[in-house]
């Protein structure tokens, strides 16, 4: 006779939950904080601001690495820009180590800066993965750009010759917003203005919100004209024209909201300019054609361009060394001046002088990869978060690249950091969207945002 043994249920094991990994959103917020800090710190041109920029980007990369370690796996999203960026950094390293650079300390300093730009672009391209990240970037850039534009206009209406009405200039300048040079302020706005403008053109934005966002974009664009930057004015006009072309290309019969938005944006810009610009702005606009090369006293930009070509012919292959232009140029300067010409006022010529054909070729490789990857995501761009984010970032890059023919925005750390960040965004992979959002987009429905699962 056998008896069944009385069995008791096994105790439920206690599972110790691990701490949630650092989310992409936290890294993205950190990157946005660095991007916002840099322009507010006078463009991050002073040593203390450069130090903060470099150390904070290094800290972000360390946080990203810590996240990989806690997840016990290496999760890296490839980006087509990594290779040309690595090649350019290698070229500058060779200049520094081998002594090709005419001033190794300057090349080393710029190596650290470009490492910071690269790390920032890397973290952003690894972090931007979901629709919520598009909203975070678009909303953050819109608010930041609107606040800075409003401050710059107010400062322009009541100037006292000091940054933030508090900090005096040591060597003079043309203050606008947080920048010593109004052209560099315009460079920042060229990169920021497309975000509210594209956001207002997307299918998910409608009604009063569309009008409000377009108003912020108009304020930002108007501030570029009010700053008096000729290169900035040209860049903003080109950006508006390109966006208009994109809207017309995808416009369906009977659709009028998006073209009307662009027309309203232009009308608002004109209203702001008439209201706050006055006769001085009119004179500035009239002088664009006749004084396009006279931003430097005496119309010396063309002369500097010719001097740069002579410098390039002296070292055509690898150049004089990254960051060495202000130290080498005096011996090739063909005119007298009591001022220190520290930049070429043409980013392309300065790149050619400092890195030669090798560096210029790498830059062309970079741009080809950027535009090819971005073009692959622009189909139905106003209906998808990936397309909208790509178009906004790409328009910002185009604006600053146009302005670079007339100025040296990419030699200013804050603007260079923004440029490489936008390039990384434009060339990153498509964003993930929930099935619910895809279905709603297909049926042109407006849905409330829902919490998203963390990206592992």
Question: Mean pLDDT, nearest integer?
Answer: 84
Name the helicity range.
Answer: 55-70%
Instruction: Please state the overall shape, judged from the principal axes of the Cα atoms.
Output: globular
How do the SSEs run, as a string of H and E?
Answer: HHHHHHHHHHHHHHHHH
- Beta-strand percent range: under 5%
**What is the rounded Rg?**
25 Å
Domain count: the total is 1
Number of helices: 17
Class of secondary structure makeup: mainly alpha
List low-pLDDT spans: 1-22, 288-294, 439-456
Separation of the first and last Cα atoms: 57 Å
Question: How would a textbook summarize the main sheet?
Answer: none
Query: Would you report the number of β strands?
Result: 0
Protein model, in words:
The chain has 456 residues and is mainly alpha-helical. The chain contains 17 helices and no strands. It has one domain. α3 runs antiparallel to α14, α12 crosses α14 and α15 packs antiparallel against α16. It starts with 23 loop residues before the first helix and ends in a 14-residue tail after the last helix.
Write the layout of secondary structure elements.
Elements: H1 24-40, H2 47-71, H3 82-98, H4 104-127, H5 131-157, H6 182-192, H7 194-201, H8 207-227, H9 230-250, H10 257-276, H11 278-286, H12 301-314, H13 325-328, H14 347-375, H15 385-403, H16 413-426, H17 435-442
Question: What is this structure, in a nutshell?
Answer:
With 456 residues, the chain is an all-alpha fold. It has helices at 24-40, 47-71, 82-98, 104-127, 131-157, 182-192, 194-201, 207-227, 230-250, 257-276, 278-286, 301-314, 325-328, 347-375, 385-403, 413-426, 435-442.
């Amino acid at each position: 006779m056998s008896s069944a043994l009385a069995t008791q249920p096994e105790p439920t094991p206690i599972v110790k939950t691990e701490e949630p990994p650092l989310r992409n959103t936290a890294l993205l917020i950190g990157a946005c904080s660095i991007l916002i800090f840099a322009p507010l710190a006078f463009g991050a041109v002073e040593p203390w601001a450069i130090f903060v920029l470099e150390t904070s980007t290094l800290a972000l990369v360390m946080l990203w690495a810590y996240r990989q370690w806690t997840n016990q796996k290496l999760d890296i999203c490839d980006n087509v820009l990594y290779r040309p960026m690595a090649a350019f950094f290698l070229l500058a390293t060779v200049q520094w180590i081998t002594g090709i650079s005419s001033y190794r300390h300057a090349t080393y300093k710029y190596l650290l800066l470009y490492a910071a730009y690269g790390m920032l672009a890397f973290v952003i391209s690894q972090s931007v993965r979901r629709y919520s990240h598009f909203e975070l970037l678009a909303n953050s850039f819109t608010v930041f750009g609107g606040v800075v534009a409003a401050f710059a206009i107010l400062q322009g209406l009541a100037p006292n010759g000091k940054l933030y009405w508090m900090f005096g200039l040591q060597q003079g300048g043309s203050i606008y917003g947080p920048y010593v040079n109004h052209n560099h302020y315009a460079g920042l706005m060229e990169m920021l203005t497309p975000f509210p403008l594209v956001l207002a053109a997307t299918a998910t934005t409608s009604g009063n919100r569309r009008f409000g966002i377009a108003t912020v974009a108009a304020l930002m664009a108007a501030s570029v004209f009010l700053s008096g930057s000729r290169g900035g004015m040209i860049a903003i006009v080109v950006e508006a024209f390109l966006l208009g072309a994109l809207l017309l290309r995808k416009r369906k019969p009977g659709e009028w909201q998006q073209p009307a938005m662009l027309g309203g944006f232009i009308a608002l810009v004109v209203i702001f300019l008439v209201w706050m610009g006055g006769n001085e702005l009119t004179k500035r606009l009239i002088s664009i054609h006749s004084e396009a090369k006279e931003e430097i006293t005496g119309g010396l930009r063309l002369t500097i361009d010719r001097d740069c070509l002579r410098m390039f012919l002296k070292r055509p292959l690898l150049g004089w060394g990254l960051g060495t232009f202000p130290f080498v140029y005096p011996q090739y300067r063909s005119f007298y001046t009591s001022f220190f010409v520290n930049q070429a006022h043409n980013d392309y010529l300065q790149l050619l002088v400092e890195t030669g054909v090798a560096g210029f070729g790498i830059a062309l490789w970079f741009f080809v990869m950027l535009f090819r990857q971005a073009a692959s995501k622009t189909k139905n761009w106003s209906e998808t978060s990936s397309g909208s984010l790509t178009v906004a970032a790409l328009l910002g890059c185009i604006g600053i690249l146009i302005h670079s023919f007339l100025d040296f925005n990419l030699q200013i750390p804050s603007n260079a950091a923004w440029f490489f960040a936008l390039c990384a965004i434009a060339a990153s992979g498509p964003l993930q969207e929930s099935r619910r959002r895809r279905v709603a987009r297909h049926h042109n429905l407006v849905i409330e945002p829902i919490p998203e699962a963390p990206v592992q």
